[in-house]
Amino acid sequence: MYQQLATYLYQYKQVTIPQIGSFELIPQSATLDVASKVIHPPVHLPKYSDRELVREHQLNFLAVDLNVDKYIVKEQLENFGRELRAKIERGALIWKGVGRLENEDAKIVFHPDVVEIKGLQTMPAEKVLRKNVQHTVLRGEQEVLSASFYDEEKKTDKKNSLVNLIGWIVVALSIVFIIVYVSSDGFKTTSSGTKMKLVPDSPASTHK
After folding, report:
1. Alpha-carbon distance values, 198 to 17, 192, 195, 201 (Å)
2. Are 101 and 95 in contact (CB under 8 A)?
3. Which phi and psi (to 5°) does residue 129 adopt?
4. 68-77, 118-127, 170-179: which has the highest mean pLDDT?
5. How far apart are CA 97 and CA 119, in angstroms?
């Protein structure tokens, strides 16, 4: 019955054995091994608890798989659990693909095996540098694509450079205009002071 119980555990992520307890598959995320430069795929890790309540779904599954009545399966499962408990009390028991069961101070101690997910393998984790590849960057509180972000930055820089160039040209032309104006008209303005015209007295005024 080992194989049927393991199949049920892999498929439905939980199985219960009377006199022993329950086993549940807990998903584990993929891990990065920096030293080896590889990414290990996600796996499942069996977790043990002393809960012995067998679900009806499990009994129905075993009845169909073993092609016997559900009540017979229930009795067989209870006998299997008692035999398994006796074996564990005599020494460590290895349940292939699930883990190792030991008896310590009248309690079952479980050492799980890593359950791999079919189709997932370890992959190399080399750092790849690629140019002109878009990725998401944070601009203020808005996420934008890096390529468009840098394109906008370049356009903004070019626009600012053009505005600055035009500004300096206007300043230079203004200075030239002032110099030309002062050179041509400035002296006429400064020489236009108050002019006094002397008019000699008439002869008649001298005989008064």
Report:
1. 137, 18, 10, 10
2. yes
3. -105, 120
4. 68-77
5. 17
Task: Write down the pTM of the prediction.
Answer: 0.59
pLDDT in tens, 73-130: 999 999 999 999 999 999 999 999 999 999 998 899 999 999 888 888 888 877 665 5
Residue 152 has pLDDT above 80, yes or no: no
Q: Please return the burial class of 13, using the count of CB atoms within 10 Å of its CB with bins 0-12, 13-18 and 19+.
A: middle
Burial class (CB in 10 A: 0-12, 13-18, 19+), 51: exposed
Closest-CA residue to 15 (of 57, 68, 67): 57
pLDDT for the residue 198? 43
Q: Do 149 and 137 meet the contact criterion of CB atoms below 8 Å apart? A: yes
Query: Once rounded to an integer, what is the mean pLDDT over residues 173-197?
Result: 59
**Spatial separation of the C-alpha atoms in residues 94 and 87, rounded to whole Å:** 10
Tokens of 32: 């990065």
Provide the CA 105 distance to its chain's centre, in angstroms: 46
- The three-state secondary structure class of 201 is coil
Q: Phi first, then psi: give them for residue 58, nearest 5 degrees.
A: -65, -45
φ, ψ for residue 82, nearest 5 deg: -65, -40
Token pair recorded at residue 36: 């080896």
